[in-house]
Amino acid sequence: MKILTIDDQQLILLSVERRLSELGYSVKTANTGQMGIELFDSFEPDLVLVDINMPDMSGLEVVKHIKSGAKKGVPVLVMSGNTQENIIMDGFTLGIDDYMKKPVSLDEMAARIKRLVGAPVISDDSQVSNNARMLQKNCVGVVIPCYNEEERLLSTEFKDFAHKNLGYHLCFVNDGSTDKTLEVLEKLKKGSESNISIYNCEQNGGKAEAVRQGMLHLAKDEQLDYIGFLDADLSTDFRDFDDLVETLDQSNFKIVSGSRMSRMGANITKESARKIISMTINLIIRTILRMPFNDTQCGAKVMDRSVVPLLFDKPFITKWLFDVEMFIRMRKHYGKTEAKKFICEQPLKRWIHADGSKLSMKDSVKIVGQLAKIAFVYR
């Protein structure tokens, strides 16, 4: 049985192709609507799986071509993050056979395909993993800066998340590590090359430059809707990061930043001394920014890809306080009033200070001097 999959995001195509091939289907993919139409005519599939939102030609135009031709009986299954009722109804009016809203699990996708066209004779469902792997609504790139993180990177959380959340791409930036971080990253990447990559900096340039290089690197990948960064110590939970992405997707914000501000029901743990210093630094930062932020330094942020050049094209003047510089650049570009509308500070549900943090108490004292430098340069 032959299936044609049409989607403009390669991360989705690779995941769908791999799973359907595991099930015994013959699969061909197209990353544009026009290419999909050409393959439909030559490949003669038994079913077409198509996205709606594609840049060159919408999925509905592809459906219209299929359903108005000689092979209009071929089942069409739409799988899209577009949840507008009028779009869905237009699809059924054109003759689609089913509509799946992302995020959706690969298992559900396979079950719906099986219902429409059956399963290949060679398929053995018992040999296929059933671990709730999810096709996400959007493709998201995540930069994870790493400096001498070999022990932390041995955690299975990174690979498990990338494996289960299809549509996420984790880019680990090795910031000139002197331990076995790069070796551990290569092992982590093995077998997951489609959604885990490594950007290697031969010399240590500090967290700001590592994040900057990673963000600019991911910005070259046009399939990514949103790009963000996350600390390698996973003090911010992946579930919280996914919540930040959801907020960004459901709003007009350009940046959603995690906040370690304590709130009812949140698991936010800090050392007492660190908490006092953090509060003092935040007060200084708010004075410099002239904007009401509670926590600019949380290491979990995600943004629309459109603002990446604005925020990261130019090097930062500090190694640790680049978050403050990011927000100043937003304020200077859009103006204070508009910038406040585009930036959302979202309290995290869980955050724990991880042992072995690269930022020492001594570094915290130096921050005051660095803030003075930022205030002078961006005056």
From TrEMBL:
Pathway: Protein modification; protein glycosylation. Residues 2-117 form the Response regulatory domain. GO terms for biological process: phosphorelay signal transduction system; protein N-linked glycosylation. Pfam families: Glycos_transf_2, Response_reg. It comes from the Bacteria. The keyword Nuclease does not apply. Its EC number is 2.4.1.117. GO terms for molecular function: DNA binding; dolichyl-phosphate beta-glucosyltransferase activity. CDD domains: DPG_synthase, REC_OmpR. Gene3D superfamilies: 3.40.50.2300, Spore Coat Polysaccharide Biosynthesis Protein SpsA, Chain A. The modification 4-aspartylphosphate is found at residue 51. It catalyses: a di-trans,poly-cis-dolichyl phosphate + UDP-alpha-D-glucose = a di-trans,poly-cis-dolichyl beta-D-glucosyl phosphate + UDP. Keywords: DNA-binding, Endoplasmic reticulum, Glycosyltransferase, Membrane, Phosphoprotein, Signal-anchor, Transferase, Transmembrane, Transmembrane helix. Belongs to the glycosyltransferase 2 family. This is dolichyl-phosphate beta-glucosyltransferase.
